[in-house]
Amino acid sequence: MGMSTEFKIAIFASGSGTNAEEIMNHFREHARASVVLLLSNNAEAFALKRAEKFGVATKVFTRQLYKESEVVLEWLREKEVTHVVLAGFLWLVPAYLTNAFPDHIINIHPSLLPKFGGKGMYGMKVHEAVKTEGEKTTGITIHLVNEHYDEGRIIFQASCEVSASDSPETIASKVHALEYAHFPQVIDRWITGKA
């Protein structure tokens, strides 16, 4: 089969890209799938530097470009992308992308959906809400993406305990550990038809 892989992944990231790095690392030597593109809505995102380290092509886009044009879709098509992964990407995915990749866009959310999901619920805001509500458990949800925030079909959840003494930061580090442990493997199973 040579160098060409069956499945080509594009990652969308807005921030530091720690999950993106875990994913790029996982697929670096993969027999059937590779990360071919990392896209960001933030020109300063450290995720872009991480992608360069892995030799992954990068693109940066503005809100207007993302919402109102097919340029982003053209970039994905140029790279023959088959699957899209949102790794710390905060914008709603527009219909032209969900239509182009039905059931082929996946996201990770730092809570056990449907709890603490929806618009404005991301990052520390989620962990602060978990603490405020006195939740005993939280975790991660990996789900398919549709045109609504956090409403796509759930394909995987993992949980961790929350103790009364946990701060939002402690909760965040527990949730990050789950993300790194599970997200690349779940993506792998999803792409190769085992999820």
TrEMBL record:
Pathway assigned to this chain's UniProt record: Purine metabolism; IMP biosynthesis via de novo pathway; N(2)-formyl-N(1)-(5-phospho-D-ribosyl)glycinamide from N(1)-(5-phospho-D-ribosyl)glycinamide (10-formyl THF route): step 1/1
Domain Formyl transferase N-terminal stretches: 8-187
Family classification: Belongs to the GART family.
Positions of N(1)-(5-phospho-beta-D-ribosyl)glycinamide binding: 17-19
EC nos: 2.1.2.2
Site feature Raises pKa of active site His, where: 150
Keyword Transferase among UniProt keywords: yes
Pfam families: Formyl_trans_N
Gene that this sequence comes from: purN
Positions annotated to bind (6R)-10-formyltetrahydrofolate: 63, 107
Ranges in coiled-coil conformation: none
Residues of the active site: 109
Record-linked InterPro entries: Formyl_transf_N, Formyl_transf_N_sf, GART, GART_AS
Catalysis performed (reactions): N(1)-(5-phospho-beta-D-ribosyl)glycinamide + (6R)-10-formyltetrahydrofolate = N(2)-formyl-N(1)-(5-phospho-beta-D-ribosyl)glycinamide + (6S)-5,6,7,8-tetrahydrofolate + H(+)
Purpose: Catalyzes the transfer of a formyl group from 10-formyltetrahydrofolate to 5-phospho-ribosyl-glycinamide (GAR), producing 5-phospho-ribosyl-N-formylglycinamide (FGAR) and tetrahydrofolate.
Protein's UniProt name: Phosphoribosylglycinamide formyltransferase
PROSITE patterns named among the record's database cross-references: GART (PS00373)
Keywords: Purine biosynthesis, Transferase
Keyword Transferase on entry: yes
Catalytic EC class: transferase
